[in-house]
Amino acid sequence: VGALFWPFLSRHPLLRGLFLLPLLLWLGLSAVILLYGRLWGSPGDFRGDTVLVPAMAREERLLLEKNLDLAILYYEENPASRFILSGGRVEQGRIYLEEGGIPAGRIFLEAEAENLEEAFRKAKEIMGEKKISFKISYILPEHQLLRGRLLASREGYVGAVGLTPGWIFQDALGHYLEEALSLFRALLGELL
After folding, report:
1. Would you say residue 43 has pLDDT above 50?
2. Is residue 49 within 8 Å of 160, Cβ to Cβ?
3. Alpha helix locations (H) across the chain?
4. How many angstroms separate the CA atoms of 47 and 66, rounded?
């Protein structure tokens, strides 16, 4: 699109700046998201009593399975932990976790959340109803860790830790660029 308008924009420096500024902001946010996930995403640092595993309906099967595999690993290391599956694919996630050895009584389901923000909010409601400690870890792909931290803080989770199964190559660039827009919307929500 920019190539079509570049001859026009090159004659008008102000318009060129207005065109390039959002593009640079978007790419900058994508770089911050990538670095945050790489540097602070910890697959070995479990601190929460409860683990939130979003299972959104639009997630790819591979992404969901990697997140659930990490949940199973943490259950093996921390058998007292509980899991909240949130989103449209909770039943599929529950079956996967139970087949992985997590007892049904340690899994709580919340099927109404349609996005990550709702998943954090509804997990807090479940934790309040069940009188579960608000010490939480959340399992997200690398590209969502920064937004997860922002949302956990907004919902009042103290010391929440983001866990990640790591880099998932399938459509990785698209995920990072899409997450930049989601993070921008979340930051706007903080400011407004």
Report:
1. no
2. no
3. 2-10, 13-40, 61-77, 90-99, 116-129, 145-154, 172-191
4. 20
